[in-house]
Structures are given as C-alpha cells and as structure tokens.
Design goal:
This protein is mainly alpha-helical and about 475 residues long. Helix content is about 65%, strand content about 0%. Strand 1 and strand 2 form a beta hairpin.
Length: about 475
C-alpha cells in the first residue's frame, strides 16, 4: 500500500522545482502558528483525531527506539504473528491514513460500510454453523468447546469483530428503512435487516464473551438515545422496531431450534452456561473470573511503576520508563518479572497481555501510550458530540446517522477493551472505521457541493454563432 501510495503521489504531482520567492516569509511567531492551527482545526474538527493519530505514531516510534529490546518491539515477539509490535501498529495507522485521505464520495462510503455488513453476516453465519454443526472445519481453539470463535481463532476476538459489524448494520438498517410503515416494501426491507442483525446477534451470543456483550449493549443503547435526541421520534420508532424484532427473532430461534435451550433432561443448557459465565465473574481464580483479571492488573501496576528487569542485564533508561514503558510487544516478557507464585504447587502465572488494552499500553508504552490511546477515543467522542450539537444543521439526516453510529461504536469498543484484547481481526476494522470518521465531513461537503452543482446547472447551453453566412435564417428560427 505504501508503494501504491507513492506511485499515486508521483503521478499526481508535477515534477517541477520552484524555489522560494522573495515574497515568501517563514514566520516563527508562536502566536501566529497557534492561530493558524486553530483555524485549521475549526475548518474540520475531525482533524483532532488526525492529531491524536500523529501523536500515537510518534509514541510508537519513540518507545520502539528506546525499547528494552529493539528487535522484539520492532517486529514482534513472534515476527509475522499477531501482537502489538511497531510494524503491526503502524500498519493499522497506514490503513487509517489511506481511508481518511481517499474516502471522498458518498458512493465510496456506502460501499465500504456495505462490505463491513457483508463481512459481519458471513462471519456471524459461520459462527452459528460452528455452534450447531460441531465445528465443520475444525477452527475452534479447543476442540469441543462451547464458545464459538468463527474464523477469528478465539471467542473474544470474534465477539469484538461482531460488536462493530452489528453497530454498522444497525446504522445502515436505520438509514435504509425510509418507506412508509404501511407498505410491503418497508416490511420486506425490515425482514432483510432483522435477518442480517439476527445472524450476527446469535453469533455474538454463542461466543459467551462478557466484555463484548456489555460493549454491544452500551453501543445500541447510546445509538437509540442519540437518534432520539438528534433525529426525532419517527427515526427512533423505526430503529427501535428493528432492535425489538431482532431480539424477538433471536429468542424464538434459540428457544425453538437450539437443543441446549430447549427444556430437556440434559443439564448442559446454554441458558445455564450464560448464567455460569456471569456467575464466574466472582468465582475462583483460573476459571476466567474477575479475580484472574484483578491479579493480572495488580501485577501490571507493579510493572508500570517499578519496571523490574533481570539482575544480570539492568534496564536502561530506568528513570524514563514511566513515560515510555518497556517497549511495544514486551508485555509477556516483562510480566514474568513481577508474577507471584500461586496455588499449592506455587506455579508462576503467565500472561501474554493485560486483558485490558489501556493497561497493556501503559506497561508497553508508558504514560505516553496510555495518553495516546485515550486521545484517539476521546477525539472521536468529543468531536462527534461537537459536530452533532454545534454543526448538526450542516449535515443531512443520513450523515448525522452515520456520525452517531461511529460515536456509539467507539464508545462500545472502548468499554469492551477495558476487559478485552485487541488483535488483527478487530483492530483492522476499528482503524478503518476511525478513518471513516476522519473523512466524514469531507464526504458531506462534497455531497452538498455536488447537489448544489446539479441544481444550479443551466438547462440549456448557449449555442455558438454560425461560421457560414448561408445558415443564419435556420439558426435564427431555432433561436
């Protein structure tokens, strides 16, 4: 993608050199630079997100250069695999930059969001098949496990993907249900979108992942609230109808078809499994309980404050580690420095990540990593709220709807990542949708410009005068 971008840039820029003219003045006045920056941000407030991403990129580069292990931080603990290495993180940022700079028309926007919905349907449908047909392609992390993972390799990763695809699907469903309620066309579309959301809803339910469940509930709840506040009761009625019918379809499906929900002599019911999943939050350590998370977070706090390392090889720049951390993708190595023995056999607990994206960033990239991660989320929520409240009249209902959907997605995603793990499967989609948010004002502006150009275009063009004197009579009659 970098190579293609360079080729595009070279073809679109004239190869000419012009030196600085005598009238060009490079001002070093800080006040002038600040005023220019303020004007630049006011023109398009989503540039705050661009600044947050630039800060994130600078943090990744700095913490990699000053890492306790440059090779691991640059390429990853296992090069080519999933992780938080600098190469992988900058690849996400590259995706963001390409989408933010190349997404310019409404047609591009609907194609991209449509592909996300299609991917969610295929991804969710395979998860449902996996649940009912005993994993036909043997893709489950542990053969015979109850929790499905679709093609993501882990139930948590699968649920994180579905959280975002469900949000995009609900946004497009609301945008497309514009016909009167008493028409067959409306109910045909309603049936289609309820099916689309129902497949994904069943799949995320079968993952039995608590964090994504809560993130999805928050995202859908915020979506309904913001739709009511900024788009009115009519749109809220249609959106609420989609949500209610989807929930009813899911309940009817699992109650009548799913053998684990149907009352029978078996004791291994999915309903009992769901209750057990929430009940395990306060259970014993080692069973995916909150106690495991708390132990990992407590150890991570010691790592973020003390920065323990091997005695034979002292950690360089120890006084600066609070700001820069150990380095990208070094969490699994650093964790063993502070992990305490537990159990009767006094085994050392091993963790490859903090099961909290923000804590993980704090250990690997220090305070700078934590601030950069929060800045990206904060920029979307704050700027999105500002655009809805202060500039809502500049956007059509459809673009306000997409803006609301992206805000709710990021909020639900932020909650889910408080107890989750970001990986390629979900981080890729997340950064692409951040790019959509950055490009949305320009898309709306181009759409308004195209509509105004169509309205103001004259119906007929003036005809040029005839060159020959033998044609004036016919030309005069036509005029």
């Amino acid at each position: 993608m970098v190579i293609l971008w360079m080729v595009e840039w070279s073809l679109s820029r004239p190869w000419t050199f012009t030196g600085l003219s005598s009238n060009t003045k490079l001002s070093l006045n800080p006040a002038l630079q600040v005023s220019r920056m303020v004007r630049w941000l006011k023109q398009r407030p989503t540039r705050w997100l661009t600044l947050a991403v630039i800060f994130t990129t600078a943090t990744i580069i700095l913490t990699t250069v000053l890492s306790a292990s440059l090779a691991v931080s640059l390429w990853g603990a296992i090069p080519g695999q999933d992780g938080y290495s600098a190469y992988t993180l900058i690849s996400y940022i590259l995706l963001f930059a390409i989408v933010a700079t190349h997404l310019r028309t409404s047609a591009q926007l609907w194609r991209l969001l449509g592909v996300v919905v299609l991917m969610g349907v295929l991804f969710g449908a395979f998860g449902v098949i996996q649940h009912y047909s005993d994993d036909p392609f043997a893709l489950l992390e542990t053969p015979g496990q109850v929790r499905v993972s679709s093609t993501a390799g882990n139930p948590i990763f699968a649920a994180s993907v579905l959280l975002m695809t469900i949000g995009v699907s609900l946004t497009l469903a609301t945008a497309r249900l514009k016909d009167p309620l008493n028409t067959s066309r409306f109910w045909a579309r309603m049936g289609l979108w309820v099916s689309v959301l129902g497949v994904q809803g069943l799949a995320i339910m079968f993952t039995l992942s608590r964090g994504p469940w809560l993130g999805t509930i928050l995202s859908v709840g915020m979506f309904l609230a913001l739709v009511a506040a900024f788009l009115g009761r009519r749109v809220l009625l249609r959106t609420g109808l989609v949500v209610v019918l989807t929930g009813a379809l899911m309940a009817a499906f699992v109650w009548t078809i799913d053998p684990l929900f149907r009352p029978s002599e078996t004791q291994d019911k999915t309903g009992d499994t769901v209750v057990a999943r929430f009940g395990s939050i306060t259970g014993q350590a080692g069973g995916g309980s909150m106690q495991d998370r708390l132990e990992i977070w407590e150890t991570s706090w010691r790592l973020a404050t003390s920065h323990a390392w091997t005695e034979s090889e002292p950690l360089s720049l120890n006084w600066l580690r609070v700001l820069i951390g150990y380095g990208p993708d070094l969490y699994r190595y650093a964790y063993l420095m502070e992990s305490l023995p537990r159990g009767e056999d006094l085994r050392i607990m091993e963790a490859h990540n903090a099961h909290n994206y923000y804590i993980n960033q704090t250990v690997e990239q220090g305070v700078l990593g934590l601030v950069s991660s929060l800045a990206v989320v904060g920029a979307v929520v704050a700027v999105g709220g500002y655009l809805l409240i202060r500039r809502g009249e500049e956007y059509s209902p459809v673009y306000k709807l997409v803006l609301i959907g992206l805000i709710c997605l990021v909020a639900g995603r932020a909650l889910e990542q408080m107890v989750g793990v970001g990986r390629v499967s979900d981080l890729t989609i997340s950064w692409i949708l951040l790019g959509v948010f950055a490009a949305l004002p320009m898309i709306a502006l181009n759409s308004r410009a195209a509509a105004q150009a169509t309205i103001s275009k004259p119906r007929s063009q003036k005809r040029s005068l005839p060159k020959s004197r033998s044609e004036p009579t016919r030309w005069a009659r036509r005029v």
